[in-house]
Specification:
2 helices, mainly alpha, two-stranded antiparallel ribbon, single chain, 2 strands
Length: 149
């Protein structure tokens, strides 16, 4: 038993700080990758919607140019303006969402780095039958979820 206690003490003193340092180095690139994936998905989706709205605005402008009656032309110009406004709203929404995601990422990095810095080894590992093993439920070791949703 004395040997086991010595091994555990050595692990906590020598190895655990290195594991924490590794986790701290891995988290920022992982969160950056996740951010890039979310932004890419969001951008592709919103860009398609925005392009579709701009295309519809151009179609309505062409209809206005071809209209034989002045009131038809005015109607098509009005619809074109509505589609331009939809496109602009989509662009602004995309920028707003990007900003929210960037803020969330920065907050997540700080929260995770802070939690990892003070993460006690016994929140991650447990000794069972003289074996050191990873706990089944690691949620208590993670920072609490954001209250903003």
């Amino acid at each position: 038993m004395l040997l086991w206690q010595s091994i555990v003490k050595w692990f906590v003193k020598q190895v655990w700080p290195e594991i924490l340092a590794l986790i701290k180095r891995l988290i920022p690139p992982l969160l950056d990758w996740l951010y890039e994936q979310i932004i890419d998905l969001l951008t592709r989706s919103k860009t398609r919607e925005e392009e579709s709205a701009r295309h519809r605005a151009k179609e309505e402008e062409l209809r206005a140019e071809r209209a034989s009656a002045p009131q038809d032309a005015e109607h098509h110009r009005w619809v074109a303006q509505m589609w331009r406004e939809v496109a602009e709203n989509l662009r602004q929404e995309n920028e707003r969402l990007k900003g929210e995601i960037e803020k969330f990422l920065a907050d997540a990095k700080k929260s995770v780095e802070s939690s990892v810095s003070s993460l006690p080894v016994d929140n991650v590992f447990e000794i069972e039958n003289k074996m050191l093993k990873l706990k089944e439920d690691l949620r208590p070791a993670l920072p609490p979820p954001s209250t903003r949703r």
